[in-house]
Amino acid sequence: MRLDKFLTDCGLGSRTEVKTLLKAGRISVSGKVQKDPSFSVLPESIEVFVDSKPVSWKKERTYLLHKPAGVITATEDPKQTTVMDILPKFVVRKNLAPVGRLDKDTEGFLLLTTDGKLAHELISPSKKIPKTYFVLLENLFSTEDKLRWENGVSISVKGEKLTTNKAIVEILSEREVRLTIYEGKYHQIKLMAEAIGNQVIYLKRESMGGLSLGDLKKGEVRELDPPDLELLKQSRDV
């Protein structure tokens, strides 16, 4: 791989920007300053430094974003702010895309990855990856409502009549619920609320698989490591 492509893939900027770093003598390869952008490197076995700081190259990258409300889950949009627009500079954006989606007014756990296979595994209904949400409802939520959500309710998704799969429901207060589902239909939780004569006032996804937001604040991002990725894939049948 060319050194300038390697540096770009590591998130150090565009080809033009990394060539400026090279020209300035700020890049060293195996202990020697390297200024040639076409210099050949083996990404997984080479030591590269910028200003004496090691540069990390990975074949695939996955990030966890605490998505704030008011931001759409898309890679680009001419009129609205997307999750890509709010990512900090350290995030390597090349081939990065959201895994599934959160509605514009929904907050919380959102993954972005370059790994298409991982994304497919996480959103495939057959994998039954649990997704847990905090739900604030407009009206009181009863034990009868709890049973209906747990056993499945009838909803209409884009004109198609469906019955939701079984879910796990924890009543937190008269109007607050923690809901775990194993699917992800369009506007599903809002439609589930409507099915019991209620409305969602606030919705936040807290976790997916065995991985949670933890202490990540709104708008913050962290890159996932291998143990995180294993936690993500944890599922349990309902």
How would you describe this protein?
By secondary structure, the protein is an alpha+beta fold. Helix content is 20%, strand content 27%. The chain is built from six helices and 15 strands. Strands 5, 6, 7, 8, 11, 12, 13, 14 and 15 form a nine-stranded mixed β-sheet that branches. Helix 1 packs across helix 2. The chain is elongated. The termini are far apart. The model has no long low-confidence stretch (mean pLDDT 92).
Shape: elongated
Strand content: 25-35%
DSSP E strands, number = 15
What structural class should be given to the helix and strand makeup?
Answer: alpha+beta
Task: Supply database-style keywords.
6 helices, elongated, alpha+beta
Which helices and strands appear, and what pairs or packs with what?
Elements: H1 3-9, H2 15-23, E1 27-29, E2 32-33, E3 48-50, E4 53-54, E5 62-67, E6 97-98, E7 107-113, H3 116-123, E8 131-137, H4 143-151, E9 154-157, E10 160-163, E11 168-171, E12 176-181, H5 188-195, E13 200-208, E14 211-212, E15 221-223, H6 226-232
Parallel strand pairs: 7-13
Antiparallel strand pairs: 1-2, 1-3, 3-4, 5-7, 5-15, 6-7, 8-12, 8-13, 9-10, 11-12, 13-14
Helix pairs in contact: 1-2
